[in-house]
Amino acid sequence: MVKAIFFDIDGTLVSFHTHTIPESTRQALAAVREKGIKVFIATGRPKVLMQKAVGNLPFDGYITLNGAYCFTSDHKDIYKGSIPEDDIERLILFNKQHPELPFVFVHDDTWFITGVNEAVQEVADLIKIDIPPVQPIEYARGKEILQIMGYFKADDDNKVFSGILKHCEPMRWYPLFADIIARGNSKSHGIDKVIAHYGIDLKETMAFGDGGNDIPMLRHVGTGIAMGNATLEVQNAADYVTTSVDEDGILNALKHFGVL
């Protein structure tokens, strides 16, 4: 029996084409909650971008920043996993040598970026978000940084994570940048924190996702479902592949498993 379902946002709940949540998904979420099943967000987005993505749709809790920050529907903290300050200091020195690489820092309920280039604009256009305010990288000092977004490609991962962000790891769902979180955090780790809070067994969980950062979650839950628009790597990590977000994928999967 499914007691909790976790949903990624971009490419899962929200279409990359229409930038909206399909009506079939809205109806499915309402029907699931009417049955007493809890529904949760599990996203790489920060809290500051939640309202714009899902509007006033009700959820029982939120896993944000790829598991680095989890909280309840009434905004009570369940878990925070911040990036160590020594990693921040090394990144400040690195960015001084490579100012052409923008970095976003997420702290508290807000964020900032060190600069704007074509990659930043492309990602903002892709998911229809505002670009964060620009601040010098030193602004990150003394703050509880929960996630960094680095606008560099995977070819640079070894250099960045072996010598600079030593206690962090990347979560990629788009080639132009990486969500960067403290090592040990992930959507699956966030799920463990959330279900412990609500007294739900892992076997009673289901999750939907489409991006590379969803792979740990899809492998971890009782039933992992990849959207039809997911990459082959994500589909291979799932227990089931449904249709795309634009083809009623969430509703179809819930019907397939007898949840609805």
UniProtKB/TrEMBL annotation:
Molecular functions per Gene Ontology: hydrolase activity
Gene3D superfamilies xref list: 3.30.1240.10, HAD superfamily/HAD-like
Keywords of this entry: Hydrolase
PROSITE patterns given in the database record: COF_1, COF_2
Any Pfam family: Hydrolase_3
InterPro entries listed in its UniProt record: Cof, HAD-like_sf, HAD-SF_hydro_IIB, HAD_sf
Domain of life: Bacteria
Listed name of the protein: Cof-type HAD-IIB family hydrolase
